[in-house]
Amino acid sequence: MITRLTGGSLFLAGMAALGIAWWAEHVLGYAPCELCLIERTPWRIVGVLGVIALLVPGMIGFWATVLSLPALAAAVMLAGLHNGVERKWWQSPLPSCHAPVFHGGSFSERMAHMPLRPAKPCDDPTYLFHLPVSMTVLGGIAAAVLFALVSYSVVLQARQWRQTR
């Protein structure tokens, strides 16, 4: 019972995070930066593991729940990294987050080396709902809260199994 509840929560949280990112990008027109795109990967993993925990009870569901914890920890760490870039505490480790630098050459040569679509700089935060908190920080908070809840759920599941044996 706890495994299925946790699995459903993981699935819903993963789909909510990805849905909000999709909505911000495709409906509101916000362009994601490269770090934003990378930050979506842990949420995809959490969603898939949530489906497994929801549909396959027992040990497999339990271990799917346990395996969601490293993905959630990665989501928190990526959000922390991105928040530091947004606050200009450090530069992004990704070269695609920086503006291209051109040295010499003609105008046509420079245009040929331009990216096909302009990239959003990673140090430009995106704010939703007129809150003074960026999407990056909101995602990090959501991942941290979910990490704590799933950790508690794993402890409860382990206790429940010890009592039945």
TrEMBL record:
One Pfam match: DsbB
Transmembrane segments: 6-24, 45-78, 133-155
Iron recorded as keyword: no
Gene Ontology CC, one term: membrane
Keywords linked to the UniProt accession: Membrane, Transmembrane, Transmembrane helix
UniProt record, GO biological process: protein folding
GO molecular function: protein-disulfide reductase activity
Major place of residence: membrane
Topology of the protein relative to the lipid bilayer: Multi-pass membrane protein
InterPro entries, sorted: DiS_bond_form_DsbB/BdbC, DsbB-like_sf
Subcellular location: Membrane
Gene3D superfamilies xref list: DsbB-like (1.20.1550.10)
Protein name: Disulfide bond formation protein B
